[in-house]
Amino acid sequence: MEEQGKILHIVMFPWLAIGHLRPFFQLSKYLAERGHQISFISSPRNLQRSVKVPQHLSHLINLVSISLPAVDHLPAGAESSMDVPHVKQQLLKVALDLLEPRVRSFLENARPKPDWIVYDYASHWLPPLARQLTISTAYFSLFTAAFMAFLGSPSAMMSEKHGRSTAEDFTVVPEWIPPPSNMAFRLHEMSRNMEKDAGDGNEYDSGTNDTFRFALSIEGSDIVIFRSCDEFEPEWFEIVHHLYQRPVFPVGVLPSGDEHDDEFDSNAEWLRIKEFLDLQKESSLVYVALGTEVVLTKKEAHELALGLEQCGLPFFWVLNRSYEMLPEGFCERVRDRGVVYSKWAPQIKILSHASVGGFLTHCGWNSATEALGLGRVLILFPVMNDQGLNARLLQEKKVGVEIPRNEIDGSFTSESVAETVRLAVVGEEGRYVRENARKMKELFGRESRRSNSYVDTLLHHMMNMNQSS
């Protein structure tokens, strides 16, 4: 239990993505467990589908629903990144920016007055607002310390000297990262990012690019919080601490049971999935899931499918696009050992099953840590956003193996998929990586006590800083 002292009122304001809302809410529960009052702000639909307040914390966690304003070209009812195509995601940032007056009104009228506001990278306008209201600020990074170190200091992000305007600029290890290091994007990864962010023209531009949002969010913070472990990436924490020149606190990956998964225990869909998993040998199956936002080309889907067919191992593939993307006759040929599933799947429940031997992942940090928390080896297939740098970090830490791709255009072959999957899951050469991945349960698993210790350290600083201000 946190030491006795003032009860803090902490406001949480995550970015409009399910993968951001849930970690923010998980941290909220850790803080509330220690007796502090939480106001958790998001849109109505996001609150409904992403958070569930435990009964014993209902008197401490207040869900604050603020509707998003209408934005030209943003589909009606779109409240998170999973609701819009990639080319329109900047429009969500337009909606977020338009929330400033409503957030200001809440902060001005909230009782008791908020002591802290914990916010995400997209809310670059929040730090000056909080400063006007004498509220302390914490930027909560859901990205690894390695990724944030690659971006650099706030001044470097905004300077012309270090400005990165082309995809090629991001393929070079920056000067502030000491050698030797391969922490840089591949050209195909950044080309895809820039293509995604470009949209169909200025009508889909938010007016503030993501690099400036990161820079201003960090620059305006009193402290920076990371959803990571300094035991996992100590060298990168050292770099960000030097770059930011302010207190930096890891809080672990905040492991938990997924309440949304738990609802599946007696669900007919889960029972059908479990029936298939139960038929497989222990540690033999490849779980394949590339997140809700990754969009494969037809050729990529074909090569991935044929690679899974050629690897000879059982698999469960969560495919968030049409079966028409798959090679003709594929599902029929693999029906005895493979499932292609096109609905939302209870990922943690699947990864927890004894049959799962490896996870073919897009390297989103949420998914990677869920798998490592269960000791599953990773087959790395980064596509966009921060995923390329996550893959570099995970391979560097020897907990995953990356599928080889052409660095220029991102092309790959079914043979390379099959070889990498076999190496990671059953190959003798992959034994060391599998053993390393199993050890990660100590850092990232549900039973790990590290997040509790991290949160206690964070709260000690927050309370001391609040008392001295």
UniProtKB/TrEMBL annotation:
InterPro entries: UDP-glycosyltransf_plant, UDP_glucos_trans. SUPFAM superfamilies: UDP-Glycosyltransferase/glycogen phosphorylase. Belongs to the UDP-glycosyltransferase family. Coiled coil: none annotated. It comes from Perilla frutescens var. hirtella. This is UDP-Glycosyltransferase superfamily protein. Keywords: Glycosyltransferase, Transferase. One of its GO terms (molecular function) is UDP-glucosyltransferase activity.
